[in-house]
Amino acid sequence: MRICRFNDNRLGIVRGDDVHDVSAALERLPLHRYPLPDHDPLVAALPELRPLMKELADAAPAVPLRDLSLLSPVASPRKIIGAPVNYRLHLDEALADENIHHGTNIMPIDKAGLFLKATSSLVGASEGVTLRFPEQRNDHEIELVVVIGRQGSHIRRDEALDHVAGYAIGLDMTVRGSQERSMRKSCDSYTVLGPWMVTADEIDEPGRLDMQLTVNGEVRQKTSTANLLRDVQTLIERASAFYTLMPGDLLYTGTPEGVSEVKAGDEMIASIAEIGQMHVAVR
């Protein structure tokens, strides 16, 4: 199942090039008073809601995707977790290029650990990226994103995929500089998620997905998740050793080599096999 959010927070199921509105399923979500829940309510309820969502989609008219504005498929993640330098060739290019490392200590992922991004930086594909510091270098970074579906702490590697709700394409946009990663990667609109979430049952092996990013038609990044230094299961195990993972938490798994600058007016097209393709404008 491919689940999207669109227009004014409508919920949809994507089938081919069309969307079927299943927003009525949101009426089944519990109403919350202060304090708000520590998870994304839709992702938490997804196992129970999926039969209803399918029923609603079967009855709803098809609306062309091209006519809709796609938001982030996850509305309320409590954590956005990033995996730095998780591809060998990206580690090599980061170490070699002063315009990337800016004199900072680039360490392998096992030494660097993971990092957090502000949830306020999250946007969907149609919202695009607005450069916060256009006079500085701003880079694209395509990544496979894991959407956590079930709460867990100290999750064992062999049980990690049982905690996954689905997968999406991510762009971890980055201002180059000497500041901490979390600061440079947390500008408004610098965490793109989309174009929809593909539920975990549709992707048997997240460690064998081809990915590609183009800018204005030029291929900039191209690899397979088979080249991750630490795979999805290991990242979940490691993240959950430090944080309790909650439904809706997002795990950005790292970017391959080929990171480079984007400017206002550019169009990025990010694609990952078995998920799809998203068009993202730079403003």
Describe this structure in words.
The protein is of the alpha+beta class. It has two domains: 2-69, no CATH class; 80-281, Fumarylacetoacetate hydrolase, domain 2 (Alpha-Beta Complex), CATH 3.90.850.10. It has six helices and 18 strands. The protein has helices spanning 41-59, 88-96, 98-101, 109-112, 181-184, 232-242; strands at residues 2-6, 10-15, 18-21, 62-64, 70-71, 80-82, 115-117, 122-123, 138-139, 142-148, 164-172, 174-175, 191-199, 210-215, 218-224, 250-252, 267-272, 276-281. The strands form three sheets. Strands 1, 2, 3, 4, 5, 6, 7, 8, 10, 11, 13 and 16 form a twelve-stranded mixed β-sheet that branches. A four-stranded antiparallel β-sheet has the order 15-14-17-18, with no helix packed on it. A hairpin with a 3-residue loop joins strand 1 and strand 2 (10-15). The relative contact order is 0.20. The mean pLDDT is 95.
